[in-house]
């Protein structure tokens, strides 16, 4: 397979000391990006902060050993369902990469989403990109110091909100906020929040595109997944070259007027006119900037657009390819498996352990007893009382609570004794049965004794 050349251009020519200011632009792709990112941001915060009956929509509770998902409780034994979701998501990511390049990076990646939020705050506090560039040349003034202080305060505020929300997926967020306001935050939790907030502040505010260039593995293996039919943000060289300014345009000039807007709006600071580059995240900002210029010049849009190598060379592009079909099949299979798995989740989890200190207890000549420890966990909120019984190939007598109150016992171990008479084998099968209003479970174990010889 022919490899697509990738330009490794990391620092824009106009950047001063490696720093450049991203110019915000409006357009159809930026609107599409907002339609994608704002629901994701709302979902990220809403899953933690919105509560139903005192519980959030999503909580990985290590203390209760369960996962709360939209009011339903899942056991840790249901974690493979989340693995299935991750497999389906990964296949979808690969499908999108083969079909449309790095649209995940440009439209849905958390690093890109938070970077755009931080750029918005920077634009609000310090002004537009052109103003910020001029302020950089003038040096630090009192006004600029106040504006930058406000910017960094807002950055830290958003970083702490992000850190608290992320931690709220594992610790109830109300507990975190109560501990913050009452100054009773533990050193471990406080340190974790500071680390998470610091990483968010550094990644989205200071490092930004360097994460995409040097730290993100997806930006590296994307080149392996591209082929000549992958549609990425591309510059139409045949139409745009040779470049010339509007006043100097002639009959042999291309449509590109070398305005530089496509570079100024790029969040990674590349020049898309140099060809496919590893730093391009396919956010479409340069497309919106170029379309705006083409509209002013009364020229057709699409000088920069989503196009494949095949399409730019005037050949007939293909959409359905073997890899796309394979990834699509994997998405369907993984999604179907997860949906089926959710129909048979664990509602009642039971454990039965024999007492290892004594194999059995002999009460008289023909009566033997075994001791067990039983733990019951109910993941159905409607189940408060669980009935316990035993069944086997002989008459067993159960000593212990015949009903377990889940509201009081929770997941504690409960001791039981099982006795039987006229035992003629050293080992026999025994089953503990657990029944609630709508759930039932059974656990097999063994009953040990010394056989009584028959007369």
From TrEMBL:
The chain crosses the membrane at residues 38-59, 79-100, 153-171, 183-202, 324-343. Keywords: 4Fe-4S, Electron transport, Iron, Iron-sulfur, Membrane, Metal-binding, Transmembrane, Transmembrane helix, Transport. Pfam families: Fer4_18 (PF13746), FixG_C (PF11614). InterPro entries: 4Fe4S_Fe-S-bd, 4Fe4S_Fe_S_CS, Cyt_c_oxidase_cbb3_FixG, Electron_Trans/Redox, FixG_C, Ig-like_fold. SUPFAM superfamilies: 4Fe-4S ferredoxins (SSF54862). Residues 246-275 form the 4Fe-4S ferredoxin-type domain. Gene3D superfamilies: 3.30.70.20, Immunoglobulins (2.60.40.10). NCBIfam families: ccoG_rdxA_fixG. This is Cytochrome c oxidase accessory protein CcoG. It comes from Marinobacterium maritimum.
